[in-house]
Amino acid sequence: MTAEPLPFRDPRAAVEERVADLLGRLTLPERIAMLHQFAPAVDRLGIPAFRTGQEALHGVAWMGQATVFPQAVGLGATWNEELVRRVGEATGREVRAMRAKDPKVGLNVWSPTVNLLRHPLWGRNEEGYAEDPHLTAALASAYTRGLRGDHPVYWRTAPVLKHWLAHNHEHERDIASTSLRARVLHEYELPAFRGPVRSGAVAGVMPAYNLVNGRPNHLSPLLAEHLRTWTALPLVVCSDAGAPSNIAGSQGYMPGHAEGLAAALRAGVDSFTDHGEDAAPTVERLTAALDAGLITEADVDTAVARLLGMRFRLGQFDPDLDPFDADAAFDTPEHRTLARTAAEQAVVLLKNDGVLPLRPGVRVAVVGPLADEVKLDWYSGALLHRTTPFAGLRDHPAIASAVHADGTDLVRLRTERGWVRVPDGDDGAAPGGDGAVAALDPALLRGRTDLPPLTTVPGAAEATALSLADWGDGVLTLRAPDGRYLSVADDGYVRAAAEQPGGWVVQETFSLQPHGGGHLLRHRGTGHHVSVAADGLKVAEAGDVFHVETVRRGEDAVAAAAAGADVVIVVVGNDPHINGRETEDRTTLALPPQQDRLWRAAHAANPRTVLVMTSAYPYAVAEADAELPALLWTAHGGQAAGSALARVLCGEVAPAGRLPQTWYAGDHQLPGLLDYDLIASRATYLYCDDTPLYPFGHGLSYTSFGYTALAARADEESGTLTAEVTVTNTGGTAGDEVVQVYARAEHGSVPRPHRALIAHRRVHLAPGEERRLTFTVPLADAFGFWDTAHGRWTVEPGTYTVAAGASSRDLRGRVTLTLAGEPSEPRQVRVTGLAAAAFDDSRGTWLTDTDKRSGDAVAAGGEEPGELLYRACDFGAGTATVRLRVAREEPGEATVTVEAVGTGSRAVLRVPSTGDRYAWTTVTAPLPGAPAGVRDLRLTLRGPVRVERLAFG
Q1: Residue 3: which pLDDT band, with cuts at 50, 70 and 90?
Q2: pLDDT digit string (tens) for 481-538?
Q3: E strand or H helix that includes residue 336
Q4: pLDDT tens-place string over residues 618-642
Q5: Among 373, 334, 310, 891, residue whose Cα is nearest residue 637
Q6: What is the dihedral sign for C-alpha 829, 832, 837, 838?
Q7: CA 789, 791, 793: angle at the middle one, nearest 5?
Q8: Residues 321 and 206 in one domain
Q9: Residues 422, 446, 443, CA angle at the centre, nearest 5°?
Q10: 230 vs 5, higher pLDDT
Q11: Tens digits of per-residue pLDDT, 587-601?
Q12: CA-CA distance, 360 to 366, in Å (whole number)?
């Protein structure tokens, strides 16, 4: 007689029932163990091991060879949800196919990144889709739908969004606090997460390393207050790597690790990513927290239930019914074509004076440090195939001939002990520049210690000429003649042993520091200097003096190649592992000086020069825009980057990518990297008052498009806006147009965006073809804003404009609407009091935590006084007193001045030290003249002080 299967094994039962049954069969230690990233098997119940976390940002990462699609910011440039959905689907299929061969491949994928590209100097700019919340949410929803699949029960993979919340800097990312006021939170940050979560294809989120308003994101009350209210699905919250230890470690927010992990679990973190595969410290800390009464068994069960629910939906307990293993596929012709299509659609034509497309039979020079490169980033898989720009153009039938010069300087290095030489005996050549790529792990190659280190020789004739590339900020790479980069292995010796720069700590970058009539050669990975030892070059605390002899300038080689060509294609940009990546923000928008010299040298030799920027972020290239006939930008385009670019340059494909973020004219237009108040700092296309170099949404084509008959109607009863516009291809070439619809409040009661994207669509039109497009948008999404005074989303009465066009600053039609809306009433401060964080404007203040669980307060304490402004406060028939809830851990005294603007009524309240930042007290003072009626209220904070609330009497 066959025993009945346990209830949790019954696929006919609801997931919730199966979870409850299994949860009841697990012991408490088994449940606690499941809270670590690497959950062990439970053999007695036949439950396999499970790990959260598989990187899959633009293809499967970190698991060897996979189809590599364009970077996320490149997918953002396509403005094409259906394409991005297909990329997500292909990635999910490859996750499944790779898992069938390697159980280390996980089905809980930590992708995509939906952090908004608010600031273009962010090191991880490559990981986001756009600076706009609407576009980001639309593309993230599409990508997660592809990853999740469309089965009603089972999921192909379980996507987790990164990184909650307001994470857009790498500098001190684990200890810096983002000051996030209510309007920026609700209008900008939350919508990027809310859209994909509500789409039903998101399994969870990952909190960011940083703090928000003084509180670690891993303790964010917003996880419960907002995130988990957007869907009935029990979302899983996976910690970022090492972040649980940061709470009591680098952040010092809790007194010990047990307290830190307990606080995270109570806040809603379900899976703890810490100490790699070693779960023991996490289990020990959570067990100690349970024993101390910091958490309850119910807290543990809530988290484990969410994790088990995800595992059931991934089919882990129903392998015979899971439909996605049969759907698994790897490196298929379809995936290869999709990779090329995505790379083509990501190309943005910034300027074109007619030099493009290239005419058949043209001779081209393809020059620059990225001309014959396919660069990967930290979240790329290893390449199965690759085509460089040079190879793509060389092999294109429209090109008569192609020559190449990389534009790096050729140098020799001399020390007092001799000239530097790369010894013979290297037993492997670097992989070729196109076609199939050999199965080679660059990390293993980089770490080889059997290769001979660099040595010195007495004569210059025996020295090795090295290619020196300057990536800006004084960061250099050096390559041997065989193409390998100089690198430092664990034994400290310098070898020509790296296919590309890479790794968490990059070992292939150097800098030259003037010293003793020459330079010290500093190895940036170790922080030490290169010295000459008897057995070869190695790094040490003290280095030798090097003299650099330039054998050939890169710009001379570029000029020579340019002079003999009909058109020059200069390919510049970044290496995603250098000067702008995870852990490292950029310092400037400018091109590296060496790259700047290259386009100038090419243009001086040949006016028909095209600048192609292949990069993970924008540059400020105003002079290039003024002087060159054509400029293009593309993110690093993955395995098909070169063939895709060649097809666009040769006119086989019309460019139609659009910028997913503003390209500023210079660093002077940028706010501070840690200034997240884009309303006050006038950042992104939403608020920027300056003229950018290229606006958000910009991108040209080889054809032209006309816009006619824009119409818009608002139905306030149903809460719906409908906009229609006719778009016509008025040129002679087929192409895609990205139709963009923006909304604007003409006379808002608070500062509103110049224009905000509310809808878009990418459409393909043949010459002469026209299409009538209809967009339907909730009125609140189109015209609403966060009413800080009353803590709600609202559409106020007034005049609004709906515009459609080709970019945020190329609007071809406008329609004006008048809405009855919902009038905003004054703040009833006499009755309800006033939260200090509910300000309308501020200067010299920042937001901080009221306590360690919830609540926001306002802090000041800089050299200049802080100011807060609250508009339209109703003081009733007269208000005689004001009370402040304040705290001040510093010794001495601070003051807060409360002023009813325009009445002459002003009270100065002295705030004594309370001994602790969380020790709140109330101070009271009379308001002279008992101001009455509706007035603006101003607070001036002098000295270190925290204000949480005001009350009036």
Answers
A1: low
A2: 999 999 999 999 999 999 999 999 999 999 999 998 999 999 999 999 999 999 999 9
A3: helix 333-345
A4: 999 999 999 999 999 999 999 999 9
A5: 373
A6: negative
A7: 105
A8: yes
A9: 165
A10: 230
A11: 999 999 999 999 999
A12: 16
Specify the amino acid at residue 234.
P
Query: By percentage, how much of the chain surpasses pLDDT 90?
Result: 96
Residues 669 and 805 in one domain: no
Which of 819, 849, 883 is at the close of a domain? 819
Beta strands (DSSP E) in 80-164 are 108-109, 158-164
How far is residue 327 CA from its own chain's centroid? 30
SS3 215: strand
Tell which of 276, 296, 327 closes a domain: 327
- Return d(Cα 296, Cα 129) in angstroms, integer: 40
Is the sign of the CA dihedral 199, 204, 208, 212 positive or negative? positive
The residue assigned the tokens 């990389």 is 406
Rg over alpha carbons for the chain, rounded to the nearest Å, is 30
User: What distance in Å separates the CA atoms of residue 637 and residue 75, rounded to the nearest whole number?
Assistant: 9
CB 767 within 8 A of CB 732: yes
* Residue 800: partners with Cβ closer than 8 Å, 6 or more residues away: 714, 743, 744, 745, 746, 782, 783, 816, 817, 818, 819
Shared-domain flag, residues 320 and 353: no
How far apart (Å, rounded) are the C-alpha atoms in residues 688 and 132? Answer: 13
In angstroms, the CA 403 to CA 368 distance is 12
Q: Which of 682, 694, 557 is nearest to 618 (CA)?
A: 694
CATH code (residue 108): 3.20.20.300
Percent of the chain with pLDDT over 70: 97
Closest CA to 30 of 263, 237, 283: 283
Is position 12 within any domain?
no
Q: Is the pLDDT of residue 436 over 50?
A: no
How far does the chain reach from its first CA to its final CA, in angstroms?
A: 79
279 with 402, same domain: the answer is: no
How many secondary structure helices (H) and strands (E) does the chain include?
24, 51
921 contacts 869 by C-beta, under 8 angstroms? no
Q: What is the pLDDT of residue 862?
A: 87
Rama region for 861: left / alpha / beta (φ>0; ψ in -120 to 50; rest): left
Residue 320 burial class via C-beta count within 10 angstroms: exposed 0-12, middle 13-18, buried 19 and up = exposed
Q: Are residues 900 and 931 in the same domain?
A: yes
Q: Which two tokens stand for residue 801?
A: 């404009």
Q: Are residues 249 and 270 in the same domain?
A: yes
Same domain flag for 400 and 492:
no
Domain membership of residue 498 as a residue range: 417-543
Model pLDDT, residue 726:
98
Single-letter amino acid, residue 858: V
Q: Which residues are catalytic?
A: 240
3-state class percentages of the chain: helix first, strand second, coil last, to nearest 5: 25, 30, 45
Whether the per-residue pLDDT at 108 is higher than 60: the answer is yes
Q: How far apart are CA 348 and CA 675, in angstroms?
A: 29
One DSSP character per residue, 722-751 reads EEEEEEEE-SSS-EEEEEEEEEEETT-SS-
- Look-up: residue for tokens 């990297």? 673
Number of domains within the chain: 5
β-bridge partners, 744: 801
